[in-house]
């Protein structure tokens, strides 16, 4: 029937979501230098978590032992929002071990 128009395929819908006016990747293509100029992290550089562990940055600590530290998030997204971090630096997830 000539009156039936095809529906857009999933690829078209996905591309519109990614590249449309509010699409997730729109800024990558409008300002690629912003994303290309990001330098990879320096492996031994201090992170905000290192500084919290050493008490160089204040935190509302709710638990601590020899292996981990837990503290309330500074910008909670719910009634209870805290982070638990290891005290030993783990650069990659696959470097972690079961406790």
Structure write-up:
This protein is an alpha+beta fold. The chain has two domains: 38 residues, no CATH class; 48 residues, HIT family, subunit A. Helices cover 26% and strands 14% of the residues. It contains four helices and three strands, in the order H-H-H-H-E-E-E. A three-stranded antiparallel beta sheet has the order 1-2-3, with no helix packed on it. The longest helix has 10 residues. It is extended. It starts with 9 loop residues before the first helix and ends in a 13-residue tail after the last strand. The mean pLDDT is 77. InterPro entries: Histidine_triad_HIT, HIT-like, HIT-like_sf. GO terms for molecular function: catalytic activity. It holds the Pfam family DcpS_C.
List the helices and strands and how they pair.
Layout: H1 10-19, H2 26-30, H3 32-36, H4 48-53, E1 61-64, E2 68-72, E3 82-86
Antiparallel strand pairs: 1-2, 2-3
CATH level-four homologous superfamily name of the largest domain: HIT-like
- Mean pLDDT score, rounded? 77
Number of structural domains: 2
> Per the principal axes of the C-alpha atoms, what is the gross shape?
extended
Helix content: 25-40%
Largest sheet: 3 strands, antiparallel
Strand line-up in the sheet with most strands:
1-2-3
Count of alpha/pi helices = 4
Span between termini: 64 Å
Secondary-structure content class: alpha+beta
**Which spans of ≥5 residues are poorly predicted at pLDDT below 50?**
none
Pfam families: DcpS_C
GO molecular function: catalytic activity
């Amino acid at each position: 029937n000539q009156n039936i128009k095809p529906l857009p395929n999933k690829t078209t819908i996905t591309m519109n979501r990614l590249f449309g006016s509010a699409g997730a990747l729109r800024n990558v293509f409008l300002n690629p230098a912003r994303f290309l100029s990001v330098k990879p992290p320096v492996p031994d550089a201090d992170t905000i978590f290192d500084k919290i562990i050493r008490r160089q940055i204040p935190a509302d600590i709710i638990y601590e032992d020899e292996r981990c530290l837990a503290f309330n998030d500074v910008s909670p997204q719910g009634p209870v929002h805290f982070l638990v971090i290891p005290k030993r630096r783990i650069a990659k997830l696959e470097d972690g071990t079961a406790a």
